[in-house]
Amino acid sequence: AMASPAVSPDSSSHEALSSVNSAPACSPTSDSENLSPDELELLAKLEEQNRLLEADSKSMRSMNGSRRNSGSSLVSSSSASSNLSHLEEDTWILWGRIVNEWDEWRKKKEKLLKELIRKGIPHHFRAIVWQLLCSATDMPVKNQYSELLKMSSPCEKLIRRDIARTYPEHEFFKGQDSLGQEVLFNVMKAYSLVDREVGYCQGSAFIVGLLLMQMPEEEAFCVFVRLMQEYRLRELFKPSMAELGLCIYQFEYMLQEQLPELNIHFRSQSFLTSMYASSWFLTLFLTTFPLPVATRVFDIFMYEGLEIVFRVGMALLQFNQAELVQLDMEGMSQYFQKVIPHQFDSCPDKLILRAFQVKYNPKKMKR
């Protein structure tokens, strides 16, 4: 049990998720006495959905060749669409309740909350739920924000240069005088002033950009400060990048243990883990996947921390092992850039599902 509502994602895996090797089914645990009948029914619905997706992704894998265009996700089959709109309506009502009774959900219905977040936070609730998840709702630093903007930062030139490269395809950030670039500059500059040691770190603009697509700049600033402080991100972005080295080392360990054949192939081609995985950790897949998929991963990151990056990364390698072992270094680089990003565009749920089937042992990782 967590004493304070503040998040420490490193320890949030205290349920030793490694035991969840099958689909992330929530067998009603000690939590269930706090759940009302309709909440239990919702859990059952979600599990049913997981099972369908699971069966679907198995059949999808076997048709290897036509894997790309089988958009047979739950959503796209028309018979499911009427059920879906009901489920959607239920989900809305439910999330409205969750936000209103946040502390109770956080303390007593953790398991169900976790499961719902894995299913994706509904678009219109993201701003408030992300703020609640990282306890950024009433931070004193928010009141300093407008003052920080009046100061000048040694990082300004650097920030300006990088901002144009952040989400260049996205409407909100197009053009030098776009609103997006303006607020992105503001938040990055303000952060560089409150954290002089880290200052401005490349890659972090993608995270802030995603926050700004959901919420006003003061709020995005507060959430970013929290993410840096509480989620290992500050360590990742420190100039030495020692923490990134650690993440890569831990990821390599998992690769060696779980996909030995692929690991040997990577080595034979001098294809280093850092070549493909660094951006996964630094931008939380925001520079890998299209936004709808990356945002789903980010939802989970907000509750469960960096563990989800390891899980999704391993899931991608498992999913593609057969193809990768046949490619040389150049081929693999291309494959990581061109093929891997779009495999789950039509069915982010399948990616999430596979990620939670990956074996992950927090104790081992700490060690």
Automatic annotation (TrEMBL):
Highest taxon, organism lineage: Eukaryota
UniProt-listed PROSITE patterns: TBC_RABGAP
Entry-linked SMART domains: TBC (SM00164)
UniProt GO molecular function: GTPase activator activity; small GTPase binding
Keyword Coiled coil listed: yes
SUPFAM superfamilies: Ypt/Rab-GAP domain of gyp1p
Keywords of the record: Coiled coil, Phosphoprotein
Keyword Phosphoprotein: yes
Name of the featured protein: EVI5L protein
Lineage summary: Eukaryota, Metazoa, Chordata, Craniata, Vertebrata
